[in-house]
């Protein structure tokens, strides 16, 4: 049985095709999320690449911010539920998922058996999210993908005292004007995100094994700062950005076999 | 018939101005009553119509001239409505001193809304000992004095009668709350209308309508149980919030909401002196974030009620910047965890336009409870 999970985020759309709830047979990721044609394109892409017709798919579940407005799904589930399921699929011993997406951050805590036992979401605030990093990358005129390598060169990370994106933006500009090195600023920016998210994680009762999901999981500097702040190892997987879609495909499978 | 009664509650809950105009046209004087607790019985006994003023979901502009942004939006929206003339025609407003923000509202009201006099009701923190009850009684006497300036006449026998009317309303509301716990088909929105309409009606009128509802519901077979939960907070009347609760299949089997059941938990005790008895009622009140009690019995009340009503979870609806509720939340969360009752926190304010984050939270909570 083939099921499809679609995760429509604020900045990207991800799809996973799952066979019998066990084997990932295809995946796609397109830039552009809710309100764009990327979700449909991502779905068409994964089906085409796997040579599967929509009729072959037993059930499609949609998750993420855009889940309400996607007409090609059979149902929708919250992204937190899906990130928990998807994370556990990739890491069978997983107890905590820290998901830092484009617009928000979430922490999901799982019981020993993998059941979601707690979750915390950030408030309506860009601090501690991918958006914070995007804003900072724009100020520094850098590609966000270069943050990791650049932060690794830092010897004296700058202190970004404000947790508000708007105020932090002014702070970074002031620090630039004061001659603070770019690598130190980037390391400080990543630590700032980590500090905000680690507070959220502690509130949720984070416990090992911990993994990161969402687009920011690819940022090694944030990951390292978060690991240091929580004093816990943080696992990451190349599929980290697909946890939501994997969880949705798994959820679809569980529904389909009922 | 049940739905027709709920339609009446809805009509009144969503059009308080029309309700106020109707009382004014009948030649009655309306006195606004602010959150969280005011001695409505006194107002009622002196011939005034007490009308709840808990603000509204409006954009805040003029109130910002008086308040900083980081203040409870219920209070801010009350001042906004006052400045914009939404309460025009009211003879006065009674504002209690039950939280710091309410204290600032009273002071700002005096300057911002000059045509509606502010009547302070200063409550003691230690309300249970004899000296606390005496303090409350003195506060009530001050309210009476201010109402007399507006043409009201105090009479102990009339207060005793009003106490009786309010006690009857309390009993009916408590009974309605119990009956609703057995009827999952009654939506969160309908439940909210039932409680909200009570603020805008004379209690004897509301009692009659609620009694009718109870009778009808008791003769109706309940639908199959959905997802029973307890809701806690100050205010949960946002239509979008209730729509999400209904869409996700939550059935509110009990509430710990200040604008709902907390209002009706305690009756005025029997006593020769009606005013003394009313002061004793305040002393007897408990289980509320703004009623000081170092033991915090509210926390255990939530856990016990959840168990008693077979609730599968507790939804804490936090009014943004409400310090008393925020202080209690940590204890509630820990107590629920200890009792193995899932709990979630959602944050609301009077200016919210987007409820998607709340939807995601509640959807996840539903999955967490169900999976």
TrEMBL record, chain A:
InterPro entries (UniProt xref): ATPase_BadF (IPR002731), ATPase_NBD (IPR043129), CoA_E_activase_dom (IPR008275), Dehydratase_Activator_Redct (IPR051805)
Cofactor: [4Fe-4S] cluster
Domain ATPase BadF/BadG/BcrA/BcrD type as annotated: residue spans: 4-252
Keywords assigned by UniProt, alphabetized: Iron, Iron-sulfur, Metal-binding
GO terms, molecular function: iron-sulfur cluster binding; metal ion binding
Family matches, as Gene3D superfamilies: 3.30.420.40
One Pfam family named in its UniProt record: BcrAD_BadFG
Domain of life (superkingdom): Bacteria
Residues making up the signal peptide according to the UniProt record: none
KW Kinase (keyword) present: no
PANTHER family, per the entry: BIFUNCTIONAL PROTEIN [INCLUDES 2-HYDROXYACYL-COA DEHYDRATASE (N-TER) AND ITS ACTIVATOR DOMAIN (C_TERM), BIFUNCTIONAL PROTEIN [INCLUDES 2-HYDROXYACYL-COA DEHYDRATASE (N-TER) AND ITS ACTIVATOR DOMAIN (C_TERM)-RELATED
SUBUNIT field: Homodimer.
Identification of the protein by name: 2-hydroxyglutaryl-CoA dehydratase
Annotated organism of origin: Mogibacterium kristiansenii
From TrEMBL, chain B:
GO molecular function: hydro-lyase activity; iron-sulfur cluster binding; metal ion binding
Pfam families: HGD-D
Keyword annotations: Iron, Iron-sulfur, Metal-binding
Necessary cofactors: [4Fe-4S] cluster
Keyword Transcription appears in the UniProt entry: no
Family as reported in the entry's similarity comment: Belongs to the FldB/FldC dehydratase alpha/beta subunit family.
Full protein name: 2-hydroxyacyl-CoA dehydratase
Source organism (scientific name): Mogibacterium kristiansenii
Taxonomic lineage: Bacteria, Bacillati, Bacillota, Clostridia, Peptostreptococcales
């Amino acid at each position: 049985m083939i099921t499809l999970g679609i995760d429509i985020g604020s900045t990207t759309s991800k799809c996973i095709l799952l066979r019998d709830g066990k084997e990932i047979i295809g995946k796609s990721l397109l830039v552009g999320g809710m309100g764009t044609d990327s979700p449909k394109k991502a779905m068409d892409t994964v089906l085409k690449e796997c040579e599967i017709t929509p009729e072959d798919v037993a059930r499609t579940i949609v998750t993420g911010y855009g889940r309400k407005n996607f007409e090609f799904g059979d149902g929708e589930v919250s992204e937190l539920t899906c990130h928990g399921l998807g994370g556990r699929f990739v890491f069978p011993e997983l107890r905590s998922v820290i998901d830092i997406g484009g617009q928000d951050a979430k922490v999901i805590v799982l019981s020993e058996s993998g059941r979601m036992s707690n979750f915390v979401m950030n408030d309506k605030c860009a601090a501690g999210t991918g958006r914070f990093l995007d804003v900072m990358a724009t100020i520094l005129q850098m590609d966000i993908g270069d943050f990791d390598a650049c932060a690794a060169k830092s010897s004296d990370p700058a202190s970004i005292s404000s947790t508000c994106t708007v105020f932090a933006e002014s702070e970074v500009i002031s620090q630039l004007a004061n001659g603070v090195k770019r690598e130190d600023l980037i390391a400080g920016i990543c630590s700032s995100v980590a500090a905000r998210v680690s507070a959220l994680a502690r509130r949720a009762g984070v416990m090992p094994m911990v993994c990161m999901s969402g687009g920011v999981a690819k940022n090694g500097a944030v990951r390292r700062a978060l690991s240091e702040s929580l004093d816990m190892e943080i696992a990451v997987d190349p599929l980290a950005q697909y946890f939501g879609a994997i969880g949705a495909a798994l959820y679809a499978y569980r529904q389909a076999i009922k | 018939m049940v739905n027709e009664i709920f339609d009446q509650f809805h009509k009144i809950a969503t059009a308080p101005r029309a309700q106020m105009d109707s009382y004014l046209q009948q030649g009655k004087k309306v006195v606004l009553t602010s959150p969280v607790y005011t001695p409505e019985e006194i107002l009622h006994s002196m011939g005034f119509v007490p009308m709840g003023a808990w603000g509204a979901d409006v954009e805040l502009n003029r109130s910002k001239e008086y308040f900083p942004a980081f203040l409870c939006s219920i209070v801010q929206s009350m001042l906004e409505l006052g400045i914009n003339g939404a309460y025009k025609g009211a003879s006065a407003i009674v504002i209690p001193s039950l939280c710091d923000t309410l204290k600032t509202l009273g002071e700002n009201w005096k300057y911002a809304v000059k045509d509606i006099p502010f009547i302070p009701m200063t409550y003691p923190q230690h309300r249970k000992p004899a000296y606390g009850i005496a303090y409350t009684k003195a506060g009530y006497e001050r309210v009476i004095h201010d109402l007399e300036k507006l043409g009201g006449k105090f009479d102990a026998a009339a207060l005793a009668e009003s106490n009786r009317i309010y006690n009857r309303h309390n009993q009916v509301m408590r009974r309605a709350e119990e009956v609703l716990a057995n009827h999952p088909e009654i939506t969160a929105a309908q439940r909210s209308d039932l409680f909200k309409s009570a603020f805008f009606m004379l209690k004897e009128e509301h009692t009659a309508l609620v009694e009718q509802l109870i009778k009808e519901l008791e003769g109706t077979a309940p639908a199959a149980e959905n997802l029973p939960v307890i809701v806690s907070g100050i205010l949960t009347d946002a239509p979008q919030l209730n729509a999400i609760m209904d869409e996700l299949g939550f059935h509110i089997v009990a509430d710990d909401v200040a604008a709902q059941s907390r209002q009706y938990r305690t009756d005025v005790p029997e006593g020769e002196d009606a005013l003394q008895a009313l002061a004793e009622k305040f002393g007897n009140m408990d289980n509320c974030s703004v009623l000081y009690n170092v033991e915090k019995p509210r926390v255990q009340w939530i856990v016990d009620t959840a168990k008693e009503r077979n609730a599968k979870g507790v939804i804490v609806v936090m009014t943004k910047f409400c310090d008393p509720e925020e202080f209690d939340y940590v204890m509630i969360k820990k107590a629920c965890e200890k009792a193995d009752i899932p709990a979630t926190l959602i944050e609301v304010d009077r200016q919210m336009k987007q409820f998607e984050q709340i939807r995601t939270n509640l959807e996840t909570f539903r999955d967490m409870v169900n999976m």
